[in-house]
Design goal:
The protein is mostly beta strands. The protein folds into two domains: 94 residues, SH3 type barrels (Roll); 99 residues. It has one helix and 15 strands, in the order H-E-E-E-E-E-E-E-E-E-E-E-E-E-E-E. The chain has an eight-stranded antiparallel β-barrel with strand order 8-9-10-11-12-13-14-15. Strands 4-1-7 form a three-stranded antiparallel β-sheet, with no helix packed on it. A two-stranded antiparallel sheet has the order 2-3. Strand 13 and strand 14 form a beta hairpin. The longest helix has 16 residues. The protein is elongated, with a radius of gyration of 21 Å.
Length: 207
C-alpha cells in the first residue's frame, strides 16, 4: 500500500520538474485531439463563452499562431480578415519555422504608407515598394540573435543594382487597413544605387 501511494507522487514530481517546451512565434500548427467531423471554435476573446467568429475543421493544418496568452492556454489566429482566439490544447505544433541560423523558409510582409510588400521563399526575395518597380533579390547574409532560434532575423538581400536590409522581430503587429494580427514586425531599407527608401510593416510565415 505504501508503494502505491508514493509511486504516483514520484511520477508527478518528475513531470513537474521537466522543462517546458518554449515556442517561438509565429509558428505553424495543426488541429489535434478532436474527433473527425468536429471543429475547433475561434473565439472573439480568449474565453470559451465569448462570441464565435469562425471554426477550424478536425483536419485543419498549416495554422499560423502569432501569439499566446500569458498562461499559454489560448493562441491568436486569423479568420476572415479578423483575429481571434483558439484553445491551445487543440493545437499541435508541426513546424517551428525558426531553425537555428536560418531565415524562415517562407516569409510574407506588407505595409501601407506607402503600400509595399515583400516575399521570401527559400533564398529568393521579391520586393515591391509601390513605385511601379519590383525588385528580385537573393539573400546574401542572415543574422540571428546570439545564434538562438528565436523569431528575430536581420537579412541582407542583393542584386546587381540594389541592396535590401530586412529586419524582422517577434511581437504582435497590425497594419492600418485590416483587422488581422501578425506575429512579426518588419523594417525594410532598400538602397537602390544610393537612393534609400525605408518602410515598416508586419509579416506572416503562412503560405
Amino acid at each position: 500500500m505504501k508503494f502505491q501511494l508514493t509511486f504516483p507522487a514520484a511520477i508527478l514530481f518528475v513531470a513537474a520538474s521537466a522543462p517546458a517546451h518554449e515556442i517561438h512565434f509565429p509558428a505553424i500548427f495543426q488541429i489535434s485531439g478532436i474527433k473527425p467531423g468536429e471543429a475547433v471554435t475561434i473565439h472573439a476573446k480568449p474565453n470559451p463563452t465569448s462570441d464565435p467568429i469562425g471554426f477550424i475543421p478536425s483536419d485543419g493544418k498549416d495554422i499560423e499562431v502569432v501569439g499566446q496568452t500569458p498562461d499559454t492556454a489560448w493562441g491568436i489566429v486569423n479568420s476572415d480578415e479578423r483575429a481571434g482566439w483558439v484553445e491551445m490544447r487543440y493545437l499541435k505544433q508541426t513546424d517551428s519555422v525558426w531553425a537555428r541560423d536560418s531565415a524562415p523558409e517562407f516569409l510574407a510582409c506588407l505595409g501601407n504608407g506607402p503600400v509595399w510588400w515583400l516575399q521570401i521563399s527559400g533564398p529568393e526575395v521579391a520586393l515591391s515598394l509601390g513605385t511601379g518597380e519590383d525588385h528580385s533579390l537573393t539573400i546574401a547574409e542572415m543574422f540571428a540573435p546570439d545564434g538562438e532560434n528565436r523569431s528575430s532575423r536581420f537579412i541582407e538581400a542583393v542584386n546587381p543594382r540594389n541592396r535590401a536590409y530586412i529586419s524582422v522581430a517577434e511581437g504582435l503587429c497590425r497594419t492600418h487597413d485590416n483587422g488581422l494580427e501578425y506575429g512579426l514586425s518588419a523594417n525594410v531599407l532598400l538602397d537602390s544605387e544610393g537612393d534609400k527608401t525605408l518602410v515598416t510593416g508586419c509579416c506572416s510565415v503562412s503560405r
